[in-house]
């Protein structure tokens, strides 16, 4: 149990540093998302081969189309989030991105017809108020507001990814992610070719190293750690530790990069994240998906 907990903590803390590395990669957001997926896809190909997971593809034949669709949506989700980092602080973009659990509640009520307890309703209302507070004070300049909206749209798409996976049912998380990465690559290659082409040759040494770390460590290796650990941990443990991600992102943004985030913004972010977490903890224990 301690080993699995340590694996999960390493993974979610690493996810919180994604924005820091993306900032170092001087490429269009779509290309960063593509190379992230491609590098991780190669890493997972080796992992799948070593662990004998390729034979499971036949067993999950019916769900492959669903996984491929969620992978295509995930590609756009990444592009929007990476673009958000260019216009606003990493802290604010990450906090807004964590509005996804709030959107999931709405979808669960409207689409999946799930019932909500009085406590869950209170958590949902307060989490939404936190989001509104952040958005209401984020219009100080056009760039900041644009970054917030990009992060918000990214959170909406992440909700689609999670809900699609939920509809598909329980399956091997690494296998599902492998198919998603493959679908993301298929979607992004033609998009990039039609919108300006590739610029990898222009990347400097610092950016190249950051891109390799983002693909190999953040996405390939840490996704494996994440899915291997959550299979052996209680859902509440996963939920609590997963919120280390935005905490790390905020601390790095403010104290390492020196980015400014207003008192009302951080207050709204804290309210939203805390009550989104409390809402998750009030439900039946179950693993949750990564926010990155």
Topology at a glance:
Blueprint: H1 2-15, H2 18-22, H3 29-51, H4 56-59, H5 64-87, H6 90-97, H7 100-110, H8 118-136, H9 142-168, H10 173-194, H11 205-230, H12 235-242, H13 244-256, H14 263-281
Helix pairs in contact: 1-11, 1-12, 1-13, 3-5, 3-10, 3-11, 5-9, 5-10, 6-9, 6-13, 7-9, 8-14
Mean pLDDT: 85
**Radius of gyration from CA coordinates:** 18 Å
Beta-strand share of residues: under 5%
The chain-level structural class is mainly alpha
Let me know the largest β-sheet.
Answer: none
Order of helices and strands: HHHHHHHHHHHHHH
Range of helix content = over 70%
Query: How far apart are the termini?
Result: 24 Å
Protein architecture, described:
With 292 residues, the protein is mainly α. The chain has one domain. It is 76% helix and 0% strand. Helix 1 packs antiparallel against helix 11, helix 1 crosses helix 13 and helix 3 packs across helix 11. The protein is globular and about 45 Å long. The model has no long low-confidence stretch (mean pLDDT 85).
Task: Produce a short descriptive summary.
With 292 residues, the chain is an all-alpha fold. The chain has helices spanning 2-15, 18-22, 29-51, 56-59, 64-87, 90-97, 100-110, 118-136, 142-168, 173-194, 205-230, 235-242, 244-256, 263-281. Helix 3 (29-51) packs across helix 11, helix 7 (100-110) crosses helix 9 and helix 8 (118-136) packs antiparallel against helix 14 (263-281).
């Amino acid at each position: 149990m301690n080993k699995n907990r340590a694996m999960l903590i390493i993974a979610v803390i690493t996810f919180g540093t994604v924005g820091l590395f993306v900032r170092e990669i001087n490429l269009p957001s779509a290309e960063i998302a593509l190379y992230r997926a491609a590098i991780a896809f190669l890493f997972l190909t080796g992992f799948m081969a070593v662990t004998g997971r390729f034979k499971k593809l036949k067993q999950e034949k019916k769900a492959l189309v669903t996984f491929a669709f969620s992978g295509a949506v995930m590609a756009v989700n990444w592009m929007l989030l990476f673009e958000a980092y260019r216009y606003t602080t990493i802290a604010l973009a990450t906090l807004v991105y964590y509005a996804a659990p709030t959107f999931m509640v709405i979808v669960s009520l409207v689409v999946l017809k799930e019932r909500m307890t009085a406590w869950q309703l209170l958590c949902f209302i307060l989490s939404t108020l936190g989001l509104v507070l952040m958005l209401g004070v984020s219009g100080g300049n056009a760039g900041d507001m644009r970054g917030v909206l990009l992060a918000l749209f990214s959170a909406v798409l992440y909700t689609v990814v999670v809900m699609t996976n939920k509809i598909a049912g329980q399956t091997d998380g690494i296998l599902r992610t492998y198919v998603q990465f493959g679908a993301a690559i298929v979607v992004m290659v033609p998009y990039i070719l039609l919108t300006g082409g590739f610029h990898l040759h222009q990347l400097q040494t610092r950016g190249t190293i950051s891109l390799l770390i983002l693909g190999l460590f953040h996405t390939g290796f840490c996704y494996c750690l994440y899915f291997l650990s959550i299979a052996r941990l209680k859902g509440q443990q996963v939920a609590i530790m997963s919120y280390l991600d935005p905490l790390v992102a905020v601390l790095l943004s403010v104290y390492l990069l020196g980015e400014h985030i207003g008192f009302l913004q951080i207050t709204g972010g804290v309210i939203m994240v805390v009550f989104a977490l409390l809402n998750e903890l009030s439900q039946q224990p179950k693993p949750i998906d990564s926010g990155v």
